[in-house]
């Protein structure tokens, strides 16, 4: 497996190949397999981007709800079903353009972006929207570490976007939605 330090087209191709392999194994409307495929996809992304945690958060009733999580630690700092008010999150700030997709050291810019005090422990963060095939915003695919992440770059955002598209397809499959229609971002 290639590491994040390999930044040529081969690294992007390797990530795309891993994503395609994981999503191909999901099957058609088998929610157990789909859940497993999302878990595998998040693990691949976490390892490829060298992050502590990668998650899918759904936007529901003014909150960001953690739905799927991959963590290096056995006891993740966030759990499925936990939530934060959307207006306090980095996710909302990325979606509405107030923050970039990559922040190398969240703790150092926390007050600049008006983030809650619980973000003081965060180092690097990267996130992209997850949009369903009809263009509906489901939520975000994000990753973070507790140390700064100077290694993150725009190619990593592109890798995360590929993973977000694959995640959206898997979520749509699980919900019985049309997964073939592609909407430009």
Radius of gyration: 16 Å
Which stretches are low in confidence, meaning pLDDT under 50 for 5 or more residues running?
Answer: 1-12, 16-28, 181-185
Helix segment tally? 5
Helix content: 25-40%
Number of strands: 6
Q: How are helices and strands ordered from N to C? A: HHEEEHEHEEH
User: From the helix content, strand content and strand pairing, which structural class follows?
Assistant: alpha+beta
Q: Indicate the mean pLDDT.
A: 84
Strand order of the largest sheet: 3-2-1-6-5-4
Described by the principal axes of the CA atoms, the overall outline is globular
Largest sheet: 6 strands, antiparallel
Distance between the termini: 29 Å
User: How large a portion of the residues is in β-strands, by DSSP E?
Assistant: 15-25%
Task: Please tell me about this protein's structure.
It contains 5 helices and 6 strands, in the order H-H-E-E-E-H-E-H-E-E-H. The protein is α+β, with helices and mostly antiparallel strands and 185 residues long. Strand 1 and strand 2 (63-71) form a beta hairpin. Helix 1 (9-24) runs antiparallel to helix 2 and helix 1 (9-24) packs parallel to helix 5. 35% of the residues are buried.
In short:
This protein is α+β, with helices and mostly antiparallel strands. It has helices at 9-24, 31-49, 90-95, 106-109, 154-175, and strands at residues 53-60, 63-71, 83-85, 102-103, 125-131, 137-144.
Q: What brief labels describe this structure?
A:
185 residues; alpha+beta; six-stranded antiparallel sheet; 5 helices; 6 strands; globular; disordered C terminus
